[in-house]
Write a structure and sequence with these properties.
Elements (H helix, E strand, L loop, with lengths): L51 E2 L57 E2 L28 E4 L3 H12 L4 E5 L28 H17 L4 H5 L17 H18 L2 E5 L1 E9 L2 E9 L5 E5 L2 E4 L5 H5 L4 E2 L5 H4 L16 E2 L2 E5 L13 H6 L13 E4 L4 E4 L15 H4 L1 E3 L13 E4 L5 E2 L11 H24 L6 E3 L1 H4 L16 E2 L7 H4 L16 E5 L3 E3 L9 E3 L4 E4 L11 E3 L11 H4 L2 H21 L3 H6 L1 H14 L8 H4 L3 H4 L7 E2 L6
Parallel strand pairs: 3-4, 3-9, 4-5, 9-24
Antiparallel strand pairs: 1-2, 6-7, 7-8, 10-19, 11-17, 12-16, 12-18, 13-14, 15-16, 20-23, 21-22, 22-25
Protein name: FAD-dependent oxidoreductase
GO molecular function: L-aspartate oxidase activity
Organism: Streptomyces radicis
Length: 677
């Protein structure tokens, strides 16, 4: 694990250099951003920070009036003087949830102090003298991590005129959609106008990629909702490489203009700080070991595990918070940093009856074949899994219906990424599915947390790989399906597994506001009230609180959620002034990360961060000042909704709709883990 740069400075941290003057994206004059830099010198500095402090009686940053009585802000409204928490009289309240006692609990995080505190006395680390000199010099925005959040942040910032450097550990941008080979998990309204224009563009271009390059039938090509895989998990199941190509296309003009620089195979290894600011980040090239350091006025952590939070010594949370800390009814009885969701090493698979493609028996095969965890119905090398509707055992086989059936709930059809039906007869001789199945979840050990060493992580990743290959070997041999064949060409790897492991949970910032179970879960909300509304919303999303079995031996948690919003205050760290999260590392809890972690939500988080960066550059300000100002927050919201076409509110008819009511024959999900019930 990379260590944090620890060289300290004895001098007082110097104030940040004022940002260059820029056009004002989304300003009140509605001037369109041009990307040209003003020649006038910047003369206005960001407002003095209000350093967060802890409220002894409140574990977090309270956030608003009772949302059940607060109408959805359309357009977003400035917070009124009466919008304080009924329990703690804290002006930083953004949303509330009723409790059984009738009081209004607030979210985990820190409340803002009424007056500025003394300068930070934390150690600072100087920037090395070999600061990178690329085509963009020192970028306006540095994005560590090329997942969906990082890509959205970089793309948005570049569209609004900023120069951006984005780094990625692999040679594929796209994170969970590409390098981790996970087809999109999306909500019932994904094909409507109520999603971000940029995410809709990503999806439509993936479909166009198939129309241009694949031998589709005339009917499939003309279908505006083309689904190449006809998978059940999403209305758009496709090969990972298709999304890679589209992401490269979206970034191409910005890379050509020099506004965006992409560095593949680069991992952050050190963050350099002065006081409460990240001044630079050092990356290492995995191919040759060389290191490069970038300075930037704003830095984004879009890594899969929230690596910059640790490297920059940012206040953050790992694992499960306690029920006492958050007030969440389904929270852990005791805080446990090692209670982290399972990881999965996914892989594409085709089936060729009559052929034999048996993989080598992995070293740990016998363990997975015989070992049974207390919460699981049997060994993982079986067809038995947990039914999250009943929390009892249920058999789920790879083939329960004919392989060419248009729909089925068996494993093959659930994440199928290439069906035969959409393509010309004879174009392909096999279908392809993506294996991300319950029995391939690896929950034996966490990747991060207290006491977890680099060797521990390496062992966990090795065991995770072996579990996936063991499951394939078991199906091929003991279930007499030798025709199951890996497709390494579809993920561009030697062994046929995805480039990266699928990570569901990361370090999470201690934010000014933390989204709780009580804000989004149907079971915790007044009947028909919908999710909590946030006046500072910068995006929308939906997914159930979906927690896979954890490394602490906790089984599934699955709570139905209302469509929700993404509050700006959940993107603002309690202390660091210029570090922003843009992945699974925002101000959520162990529970609510389970609904904010999926593809379209991560994209919207990244888009909001990119827009915030552009707004800060144009206004010569910083994220904390934007969050402090209702007027500046409204300007940011206008930039998102107007210039970018990214909604920040749901229509009332959707906001108060349970997803189980929006899907035909859907069953509400409500799983209580045995250890937490």
């Amino acid at each position: 694990m990379a260590s944090r740069a620890s060289t300290s400075l004895s001098r007082t941290a110097s104030p940040p250099s004022p940002a260059r003057a820029r056009p004002r994206p989304g300003s009140r004059s509605n001037t369109s951003p041009t990307g040209r830099r003003s020649s006038a010198p910047a003369t206005r500095r960001a407002s003095a920070p209000n350093t967060p402090t802890r409220n002894a009686s409140c574990p977090g940053s309270c956030a608003a009036r009772d949302p059940a009585s607060t109408p959805t802000p359309t357009p977003p409204r400035r917070a009124s003087s009466s919008g304080s928490c009924r329990t703690h009289s804290t002006r930083s309240c953004r949303a509330t949830s009723p409790s059984p006692t009738g009081t209004t609990p607030c979210a985990t995080g820190a409340t803002r102090a009424a007056t500025p505190s003394a300068p930070s006395t934390r150690r600072s680390s100087p920037v090395p003298t070999d600061v990178a000199r690329t085509a963009v010099g020192r970028p306006d925005l540095l994005v560590a991590g090329g997942g969906l959040g990082g890509v959205a942040a970089a793309l948005t910032a570049a569209r609004l005129g900023l120069t951006v450097v984005i780094t990625e550990e692999t040679d594929w941008l796209g994170g969970q959609l590409t390098a981790q080979a996970v087809p999109s998990d999306e909500h019932p309204w994904i094909e409507t106008e109520h999603i971000a224009t940029s995410y809709a563009t990503l999806r439509s271009r993936i479909r166009d990629h198939y129309r241009r390059n694949y031998p589709l039938t005339a009917e499939a090509s003309a279908d505006p909702t083309l689904n190449p895989g006809l998978g059940m998990v999403s209305r758009l199941c496709h090969e990972p490489r298709a999304a890679v190509a589209v992401i490269d296309e979206l970034l191409a003009p910005h890379r050509s203009s020099g506004r965006v620089t992409v560095l593949h195979h680069h991992t952050p290894v050190a963050a350099h700080t002065e006081g409460d600011r990240v001044t630079a980040v050092t990356f290492e090239n995995a191919r040759d070991g060389r290191r490069v350091t970038f300075e930037a006025p704003l830095v984004v952590d879009a890594t899969e595990l929230g690596d910059l939070l640790e490297l920059a010594d940012a206040e953050h949370v790992i694992g499960a918070e306690s029920r006492d800390d958050t007030g969440e009814p389904h929270g852990a009885p005791v805080a446990d940093p090692l209670d982290q969701q399972a990881i999965t090493w996914c892989f594409p698979l085709e089936y060729r009856p009559g052929e034999s493609h048996i993989v080598e028996r992995p070293p740990s095969y016998d363990h997975w074949r015989t070992h049974t965890d207390p919460f699981w119905p049997g060994p993982q090398l079986s067809w038995d899994k947990i039914d999250i509707h009943t929390m009892g055992a249920r058999e789920n086989r790879v083939f329960e219906d004919p392989i060419d059936a248009p729909t089925s709930r068996d494993l093959w059809h659930f994440r199928r990424i290439r069906a035969l039906a959409p393509f010309e007869p004879g174009a392909f001789d096999s279908e392809i599915t993506l294996v991300n199945w319950p029995n391939t979840d690896y929950w034996e050990a966490p990747l991060i947390g207290p006491g977890v060493t680099a060797a521990d992580r390496a062992r966990a990743l090795t065991r995770c790989r072996e579990l996936s290959l063991s499951y394939l070997h078991w199906m091929q041999t003991e279930q007499d399906l030798p025709g199951l064949r890996l497709r390494p060409d579809l993920v561009d790897t030697d062994d046929g597994l995805a480039k990266s492991v699928y990570i569901r949970e990361a370090r999470r910032i201690r934010a000014r506001f933390t989204v709780l179970e009580q804000h989004v879960a149907v079971v915790d909300r007044p009947e028909g009230a919908g999710a909590a509304t946030f006046p500072d919303s910068v995006g929308v999303g939906h997914y159930n609180i979906d927690l896979h079995p954890s490394s602490s031996g906790v089984s599934y948690v699955n709570l139905e959620c209302y469509p929700f919003q993404i509050p700006l205050s959940a993107l603002i760290p309690v202390r660091l002034r210029n570090l922003l999260p843009a992945a699974k590392n925002i101000g959520t809890t162990h529970l609510t990360n389970g609904c904010y972690r999926l593809h379209p939500v991560e994209w919207s988080i990244g888009e909001a961060v990119g827009a915030l960066a552009a707004h800060c550059a144009a206004e010569r300000t910083e994220p904390h000042a934007v969050a402090d100002s209702p007027r500046a927050t409204e300007d940011l919201q206008r930039l998102l909704t107007g210039t970018l076409g990214a909604p920040v509110t749901w229509p009332a008819t959707i906001r108060t709709t349970r997803p189980s009511q929006a899907r035909r024959n859907a069953t509400p999900l409500y799983a209580r883990p045995q250890r937490r019930a």
